[in-house]
Design goal:
About 70% of the residues lie in helices and about 0% in strands. It is mostly helical. α1 crosses α4 and α2 crosses α5. Keywords: Membrane, Transmembrane, Transmembrane helix.
C-alpha cells in the first residue's frame, strides 16, 4: 500500500506542476482520474493475460461496442466507477490527500527519489504494458481461423477504431 501512496503523491505533484495551484481537487481531481485509469488498465491487462492462457472469454460479453453509442459510454463509466470510488475513498477523501502531501514533503531526498522511481516505473509498465497487450491479444483468434476482423468485432474491440 505504500507504493500506492507514492503513485498518488507523484501524480498529484505533476498535475499541480502542470496546471498550477488552482487545479480542482477531490472528486474532480485530474490525478484521481489518472490513478484510476492506470488501475483499470492494469486490471484489464491481467484479464487479457488470463483470457489468453485459459481460453475464457471474459471481456467478450461486455456490452461496450461503439464509441458512438451512449449505452457503451454508460457501461464504460460503470466499469471504472468502482475503481474511482475505491481510490477516492482510500486516498482523496477529506484530509487524506493533504496528509499524504505533508508526509512526502518531510521525506528525505533519497526517499523522494525512490518514490519518483516507483512512480515512473509504474507509469511505464502500465502504459507500456497495456498497449501491446491490447494490440496483440485483440488480434489473436483462438479458434484458429484467419478472420481476425470478425474476431475483434466479437471481442468488443471495434469501438476503439
Amino acid at each position: 500500500m505504500l507504493m500506492n501512496r507514492d503513485i498518488v503523491y507523484w501524480t498529484e505533484h505533476y498535475v499541480r506542476k502542470n496546471s498550477g495551484e488552482d487545479c480542482p481537487r477531490g472528486i474532480l481531481s485530474d490525478s484521481l482520474f489518472i490513478v484510476s485509469l492506470c488501475s483499470l488498465f492494469n486490471l484489464l491487462t491481467i484479464v487479457y493475460i488470463v483470457e489468453f492462457y485459459t481460453g475464457c472469454r471474459i471481456l467478450q460479453y461486455l456490452p461496450i461496442k461503439s464509441k458512438n453509442e451512449p449505452a457503451s459510454w454508460l457501461y464504460a463509466i460503470l466499469l471504472i466507477l468502482p475503481i474511482l470510488v475505491f481510490i477516492y475513498c482510500r486516498y482523496y477523501r477529506g484530509e487524506r490527500l493533504d496528509r499524504i502531501l505533508n508526509d512526502y514533503e518531510q521525506q528525505s531526498p533519497q526517499r523522494l527519489q525512490l518514490g519518483k522511481f516507483i512512480f515512473w516505473s509504474y507509469e511505464i509498465i502500465t502504459w507500456g504494458g497495456f498497449t501491446p497487450f491490447l494490440i496483440s491479444f485483440s488480434n489473436i483468434d483462438p479458434k484458429g481461423t484467419n478472420d481476425s476482423y470478425e474476431f475483434i468485432r466479437g471481442h468488443h474491440m471495434d469501438w476503439i477504431a
